[in-house]
# Entry
Amino acid sequence: MKLLAADVGNTNITLGLFTDGELIGSWRSTAHATATPDEVAMMTAGMLALDGHGLHELQAVALASGVPPLTDTFERFVRTRIGLEPIMIDAASLAGTLEIEIDRPAEAGADRLCNALAARTEFGGPAIVIDLGTSTNFDIVSAEGAYIGGAIAPGLGLSLEALVGYASKLPRIDLRRPPHAIGSNTINAMQSGTVLGYIGLVSGLLTALRGELLERSPADSRVTVVATGGYTHEPWLRDVPGIDAIEPDLTLRGIRYAYEATRAAGTATSGSSVGSRGSDR
# Structure
């Protein structure tokens, strides 16, 4: 079984190719909300081709999207170019698989639910997933394995864009840790404020969230903290205290777990596989 998992975000589209449950390749492309189905097809085919794969190999597609215009575009591309019915991951599709204990479950982002599902599956609860992307999401898994909410803060890149966009004399800079917190020039001062400030934001929120989560957990619990997302390759991430694991592909693996649960539920109710085709094509 070859499954294409797609995580569609505001900044990037991340694709993962799974063969019999094993991730054999992942790719990241810039997201364009106005892209057409043909443009998405070209992007997907091109990224797969980088490692010798093609659309014709795919037997199932699962999609977690937080961008409504691209959700419809991606669905149409999968139906017309691959001939499959994509599995859409959301709160409804995860009913019976992941308990979602927030005020309005339908509003939970699909990527956040996939993060929670992957963390619960691979690490157990209680756990916190820090997803470092356009926004910085903290996704919380209770000791019982339920998704119970979290926090959302501006992402590092978004914060820098806002700073540069509204302060005409400030230049664009590389997001790297400065040599000192006290910047002796504009670039170092901006790096201090953005990178060191971001480390402080993540550390402070993590401390607060961990404390509240422990209050809701059995006395001997230990919270596992997992980092994922586009900024996991940045060296300064190692300066954030309390991170136990860095898993860049955690969301993709969560999409796979969600797909497998959906397929199992569909097989149980209809006697056939959901949203996939056999390997004899």
User: Anything to note?
Assistant: The longest strand covers residues 22-30. The two ends are 12 Å apart (CA to CA). Residues 2-88+253-270 form a domain with the Nucleotidyltransferase; domain 5 fold (CATH 3.30.420.40). The chain is about 35% helix and 20% strand.
